[in-house]
Structure formats: structure tokens, C-alpha cells
């Protein structure tokens, strides 16, 4: 038997075996044929339980369905699926995440079918989280033997910080401060104006004629970038204060994206220029999630 396929006696199975031992001892001492028949019946029942429990899990597959975004300390609602491609039904199967309380019970899964149960995961810390796989477990049919099968399903997850707390932001120049595009002779197009360069802006957005005339870097602002621009700045801190600063930054990102602002990020000397396109929010949240933890330094007296 492989390490991925294990079995053990349940509490009822242990009691059943203890009873069988007692019947066997009595049958030997008394030479009673009736007790001998009872013993053989018990052994046959135990053998049938071992065979049927193994067959009940054979050929079953399971997989998890997680939400697209995961935040620390927040319930993540998803599903566990059980697939039965066999010609016979499966009974009383539990699908459980390895080393996790997340589980789902499937009372009966018909032949050639798949079924799902809603479940929830909860991750206590931000950062990377690795899931190893799922376990199938059943004590069908008699509750005497618990059979388990491990299904390796590695998953590398990124858990965003819990959005919590108040986060100050730095506002950039508003639309009224941008130089009018008509004066640049650029035509209507997608171009809306210019604003001063912010660390992290792509070099391709620099408008070189205006930069030379103004004596400072100026970048092109297109129609998709005319929202209010803000930069969420992560305060320098250590230990628990650092984690709170990351959570506050996540709250700021969520708040300003909800307001349809163009959002940037300043963290650990790294600058992300404001953008408002769809995937940018996840880029910023992922940067917060993967920030290295900082241990609090003890002050010496």
C-alpha cells in the first residue's frame, strides 16, 4: 500500500475487533460451534469493510476552487469539488485540505458526475502561502475502517495584507495644473496634457520638448490617466507597527481605486507611478504582501 493510501481502525472498529477476540477465546475454551460461526462472521465483515472502503475511494478526484483575491484574516469563500468518473457511486466521502480545518462532506456522489460544496479558507498572515494538497477520507460502509487517500495539489498563493487603518496619501498635480494639450500642437487624440515627473514613471512618457523648455522632467498624461493621481506612502516602521503600516496602505489602495483614482505606491525607497488600469491594483497589493517582515529592535538602556 502506498503512503498516499492509508487506513486505520475507527473507535467502532477497535471495539468490534475486541469483541471478536473475546468471541474467539470463548470459542476455543468451550469448543462451541456457534461461537466459532460468529467469529467467522465477524472476520468476514471486517474483510468486507477493508475491501469496500478501498473501492469507495478508488478513482475519485478532488480539487479546490479559491477566490481570485485573498486577504489576511478575512474569510475566503470558495468550493471543494469531488469528481467520480467511475461506473459506481461513492458514499460518505470527506474532502479536506491537508494541514487545515477546511473540509467538505459528500454524502453520495453518483457515477460519472462531479459535485461541489461551499467552504471557506482563512489565512492569518500576509505573504506567500503554500498549499500541499487534499485528502479523501471515508469510513464507508460499516464505520469500522477509516480509509484515506492523499491527492498532491500544490498551490503557491499570495495573501494580501488585511485592509485596515487610516493611510495618508500624497496628491499629485490636479487636472487644472496640467499644461493644455492644444498649446502643444499635439492634436486631440488620446493625449490630455502634461504633469511633472514622479519617480517610477516610465521613461517613454517623458515629453522631451516641454522638459527642455520647463527645465524639469514632464510626462505625458493620456485619457486613461486623467483621474486624480495619488501616491500611497508606506510609513517606515518595525515589528507590529510595520504590519499595521502595510494594512493601512492596503486600505488606502482599496479606497482610492474604489474612487476611480490613479494610484501609485511609495515603499522602502521604491516608487510605483500612479495608474488606474485594471491589473494595477493587484500589482500594488502584491508588493505590499511580499514586503519582507521587520523584527522590532530592542532599545538598549
Summarize the topology:
Layout: E1 5-9, H1 11-30, H2 33-57, E2 60-65, E3 76-84, E4 90-97, E5 103-109, E6 113-121, E7 127-138, E8 145-159, E9 169-171, E10 179-180, E11 191-196, H3 208-214, E12 218-222, E13 229-233, H4 239-258, E14 262-267, E15 270-275, H5 280-289
Parallel strand pairs: 13-14
Antiparallel strand pairs: 1-8, 2-3, 3-6, 4-5, 4-7, 7-8, 9-13, 10-11, 11-12, 14-15
Structural class: alpha+beta
N-to-C CA distance: 62 Å
Rounded mean pLDDT is: 86
Give the total of domains: 3
Main sheet strand line-up: 1-8-7-4-5
Helical segment tally?
Answer: 5
**Computed Rg:** 31 Å
Low-confidence stretches: 174-189
Strand count, sense and barrel status of the largest sheet are: 5 strands, antiparallel
Kindly state the percentage of residues in helix.
Answer: 25-40%
Number of strands: 15
Beta percentage is 25-35%
Query: What shape does the CA trace take?
Result: elongated
- String of helices and strands: EHHEEEEEEEEEEHEEHEEH
Amino acid at each position: 500500500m502506498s503512503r498516499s493510501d492509508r487506513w486505520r481502525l475507527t473507535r467502532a472498529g477497535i471495539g468490534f475487533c475486541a469483541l471478536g477476540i473475546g468471541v474467539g477465546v470463548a470459542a476455543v475454551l468451550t469448543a462451541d460451534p456457534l461461537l466459532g460461526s460468529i467469529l467467522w462472521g465477524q472476520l468476514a465483515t471486517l474483510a468486507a469493510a477493508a475491501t469496500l472502503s478501498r473501492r469507495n475511494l478508488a478513482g475519485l478526484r478532488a480539487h479546490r476552487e479559491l477566490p481570485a483575491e485573498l486577504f489576511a484574516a478575512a474569510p475566503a469563500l470558495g468550493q471543494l469539488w469531488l469528481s467520480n468518473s467511475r461506473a459506481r457511486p461513492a458514499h460518505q466521502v470527506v474532502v479536506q485540505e491537508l494541514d487545515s480545518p477546511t473540509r467538505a462532506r459528500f454524502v453520495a456522489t453518483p457515477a460519472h458526475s462531479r459535485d461541489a460544496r461551499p467552504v471557506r479558507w482563512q489565512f492569518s498572515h500576509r505573504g506567500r502561502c503554500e498549499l500541499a494538497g487534499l485528502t479523501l477520507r471515508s469510513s464507508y460502509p460499516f464505520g469500522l475502517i477509516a480509509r484515506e487517500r492523499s491527492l498532491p495539489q500544490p498551490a503557491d498563493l499570495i495573501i494580501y495584507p488585511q485592509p485596515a487603518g487610516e493611510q495618508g496619501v500624497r496628491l499629485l498635480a490636479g487636472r487644472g495644473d496640467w499644461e493644455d494639450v492644444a498649446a502643444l500642437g499635439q492634436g486631440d487624440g488620446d493625449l490630455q496634457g502634461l504633469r511633472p515627473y514622479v519617480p517610477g514613471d516610465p521613461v517613454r512618457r517623458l515629453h522631451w520638448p516641454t522638459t527642455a523648455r520647463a527645465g524639469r522632467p514632464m510626462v505625458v498624461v493620456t485619457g486613461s490617466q486623467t483621474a486624480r493621481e495619488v501616491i500611497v506612502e508606506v510609513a517606515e516602521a518595525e515589528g507590529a507597527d510595520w504590519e499595521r503600516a502595510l494594512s493601512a496602505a492596503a486600505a488606502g489602495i482599496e479606497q482610492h481605486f474604489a474612487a476611480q483614482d490613479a494610484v501609485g505606491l511609495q515603499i522602502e525607497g521604491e516608487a510605483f507611478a500612479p495608474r488606474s488600469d485594471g491589473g494595477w491594483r493587484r500589482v500594488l497589493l502584491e508588493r505590499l504582501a511580499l514586503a519582507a517582515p521587520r523584527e522590532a529592535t530592542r532599545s538598549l538602556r
